[in-house]
Write a structure and sequence with these properties.
Elements lengths: L2 H24 L6 H40 L1 E10 L6 E5 L5 E2 L16 E7 L2 E7 L5 H32 L6
Antiparallel strand pairs: 1-2, 1-4, 2-3, 4-5
Helix pairs in contact: 2-3
C-alpha cells in the first residue's frame, strides 16, 4: 500500500463522515435559534466530560511518571510521619549521607498513615522531594482517577438527559 492509497482512503472516509459531522456541529440547514443553542449546550457538556476524562488519564500518567523517576534513581530510607492526612502526609527522613529531608509536597500514596508512624520510603536520589511509601505505586491512582471519569460521564449523561427534557418542553407547537 502506497502513501497515495492511504491518502485516497483517508479522503474517502472524510467524504462519508463530513456530512454527519457538519450536521452535528452546525445543524441541518434551517435550524431555529433555539435548536442551535441546545445543540451547542450538548456539545459543551460532551466537551466538559471529555476534559474530565483527560484530567483522569493525566493524573494516572503523572503518577506513573513519578514512579519511573523514583525507580531510575532509587533511594530507600526510614521516615517518620509528622502529619498524616487522607490526601497529604508530611514526613521526615534521613538519607545515607545524613541529610534530613522534609519533602515540601509530602509523600506520594499517603493513605493509611498515622502521626508518629515509622515507615520506609523510596525516593529519587537526585530529587529527594519526590518520595513515595515503599511498595506503593501508580496502580493506586487508577481507581480514584477512574472514579472521577465515571462520575464525570454520569453527570454528563444526566445533564444531557435534562437538556433533552427541557428542549422537548420548550418546543412550541406547530400551528396548522
Amino acid at each position: 500500500m502506497t502513501a497515495t492509497d492511504v491518502l485516497d482512503r483517508g479522503r474517502a472516509r472524510w467524504r462519508t463522515v463530513r456530512p454527519y459531522l457538519t450536521a452535528f456541529l452546525f445543524g441541518a440547514g434551517g435550524d431555529t435559534r433555539r435548536a442551535t443553542v441546545f445543540r451547542r449546550i450538548r456539545i459543551g457538556i460532551i466537551v466538559l466530560a471529555c476534559l474530565v476524562t483527560l484530567q483522569s488519564v493525566l493524573l494516572v500518567l503523572g503518577a506513573w511518571r513519578n514512579d519511573r523517576q523514583i525507580e531510575r534513581h532509587l533511594g530507600v530510607a526510614e521516615a517518620t510521619v509528622l502529619d498524616a492526612g487522607p490526601r497529604r502526609s508530611t514526613i521526615e527522613f534521613v538519607t545515607p549521607d545524613r541529610i534530613t529531608y522534609r519533602p515540601e509536597l509530602g509523600v506520594l500514596y499517603p493513605s493509611e498513615l498515622e502521626n508518629g508512624m515509622r515507615i520506609y520510603v523510596e525516593y529519587d536520589v537526585n530529587n529527594p522531594d519526590l518520595v513515595r511509601v515503599q511498595h506503593r505505586n501508580a496502580a493506586l491512582a487508577i481507581i480514584p482517577a477512574g472514579s472521577i471519569a465515571v462520575v464525570g460521564w454520569l453527570v454528563a449523561a444526566a445533564a444531557l438527559g435534562a437538556t433533552a427534557l427541557i428542549e422537548r418542553r420548550t418546543q412550541r407547537p406547530v400551528s396548522v
